[in-house]
Design goal:
The complex is a heterodimer of chains A (146) and B (122). Chain A is of the alpha+beta class. Chain A is built from 3 helices and 9 strands. Chain A has a single domain, classed as 2-Layer Sandwich (Translation Initiation Factor IF3), CATH 3.30.110. In chain A, the strands form 3 sheets. Chain A has a 4-stranded antiparallel beta sheet with strand order 6-5-9-8. In chain A, strands 1-7 form a two-stranded parallel ribbon. In chain B, 3% of the residues lie in helices and 54% in strands. The mean pLDDT of chain B is 82. Classes of the chains: A alpha+beta (146), B mainly beta (122).
């Protein structure tokens, strides 16, 4: 009984010693975007008029991914801020859009195995990550009815 | 995070409207709302003894985090816009091999209501 208890205790100590965590945290910006980006289906023009699905036409699909890596149990992220402006500007310009609506900000899959990697994630140098994905509809105003 | 149920623009970035240039909007006098989405889970690893051998699996509890813009900001006045700032995302996972796991993915932001001159309603 004592041997069994000792083994159990040793196993528990080993498991706790191998306990670890990993991840990353990142600030997301679009400070240099040249187009309005709306998380809702609505956007205004300069006069304050509201445009939505009835008065906008979809001309493309925005899809931008960026992976950010963290270290020291997610306390240190490199870089701490990710700006998506250049990718958004390029995709909207490419299809002749005027805005992005229904913008969705999500954390994609693909980092679970890294963040949860057994034993190695106990090491502070083991990297974690956060995969950021922005998607949305690229739109422009509908031409006026004749 | 999305705001697909809202009827007013929920803006990220400096451009407030179609055909407009980037502007630095004055801070809103209205209180800033904290919106978030994501989920978290914690659980234990299980090793089921079956006729075909020991099958690893897990059991745990999962919960949604935060209050989404759709719920928190649904009643925003239709003549105004919402401006998001301080958008931050995190993914994190902890494991104690063989015994325990915990993970969290979260997206958080601050949302401020901005008055729009001549702002119309649907």
């Amino acid at each position: 009984m004592t041997v069994t208890a000792t083994r159990l205790a040793a196993g528990l100590v080993c498991a706790l010693a191998a306990a670890g965590c990993a991840g990353a945290r990142v600030n997301v910006t679009a400070d240099r975007a040249r187009y309005p980006l709306s998380l809702s289906p609505a956007v205004r023009d300069g006069s304050g008029r509201l445009y939505d699905a009835r008065t906008l036409v979809k001309v493309g699909w925005l899809d931008v991914h960026k992976m950010t890596t963290g270290f020291v149990y997610s306390a240190l992220t490199v870089p701490p801020t990710r700006d998506f402006s250049d990718e958004i500007n390029a995709q909207v310009t490419a299809v002749g859009g005027e805005a992005v609506i229904d913008l969705t900000i999500s954390i994609g899959g693909g980092c679970g195995w890294l963040n949860g990697f057994p034993i190695l994630n106990a090491l502070p140098v083991w990297p974690g990550c956060v995969p950021v994905r922005l998607t949305g509809d690229i739109v422009r105003r509908s031409p006026p009815a004749p | 995070m999305s705001a697909a149920q809202l009827r007013v623009p929920v803006l990220l970035g400096p451009v407030p409207c179609l055909g407009c240039a980037a502007v630095s909007r004055a801070p809103s006098a209205a209180p800033v709302s904290h919106v978030a989405s994501g989920d978290a889970a914690l659980g234990i690893f299980l090793f089921l003894v079956t006729p075909v051998g020991i099958v690893p699996t897990s059991a745990g509890e999962r919960e949604s985090l935060g209050i989404s813009p759709d719920r928190l900001l649904y009643w925003t006045r239709c003549g105004n816009d919402l401006q998001l700032s301080n958008l931050r995302l995190r993914a994190w996972q902890a494991t104690v091999p063989i015994f325990y796991f915990q993970y969290e993915v979260a997206i958080e932001a601050d949302a401020a209501e901005m008055a729009v001159t001549g702002g119309s309603c649907p």
